[in-house]
Structure prediction request, 273 residues.
Amino acid sequence: MENRRNFFHLHLISDSTGETLISAGRAAAAQFKFSNAIEHVYPLIRSKRQLGPVLEAIDNEPGIVLYTIVDPALASLLETTCHEMGVPSVNVLAPVIEKFQAYLGAPSRGRVGAQHVLNAEYFARIEALNFTMDHDDGQAPDGYDDADVVIIGISRTSKTPTSIYLANRGIKTANIPIVVGVPLPESLLKAKRPLIVGLIATTDRISQVRENRELGATPGYDRSEYTDRATIAEELKYARALCARNNWPIIDVTRRSIEETAAAIVALRVKLR
Prediction:
């Protein structure tokens, strides 16, 4: 019997950016293999006037409503209206905040977008992102000792997206491609401060990813060699030997998401401190 996918409407209403809701909604929806969410995201909803069109949209396309709204009156209006429509609604942060309040013995501040305050942590993330973009794919090799993490690996081992994810957590990350026969920068070998970690994957996985990569029409370029499994196996052998020679840890990203790879790197930083 053919598996059919069902679609449902998922309304995400936030008085801030909606990032928390999007993550929570997608994490929950991912548990239901044959149901796909049609997302409707409504950020910066902070008044009855702004909420009105959102309620109309929900009425027109009923589905699950997730929300994070700090204003009790606005949250109550949304909850009541959803109940009248017969639409399920969940205040995503409410049970979490209740547990915090019970444990800490203090009420929450009730501040909209409190996690997005322009504090020192925010500016540290911006600085890390700028550093990471400046040191992507082997650029600016003189700055590696200013990095928190340096990622190395052959082509298509998720170096750049992992670097950006780490930078968004305030971790200055550089990444360098490993190319057979091309020595790594001397500045990397002399660097004392950063965690240097190698990323690898299976030959088949890298070949598949490379086959789907757009490389343009470079004159004289042999694409078949780029995706050839024997060539990739040699690249991986070279990368492993390089890491072993320098005692750099290796992470296999074959079955890891970017988030899981980043989490493994963060765990290594803590372990090796």
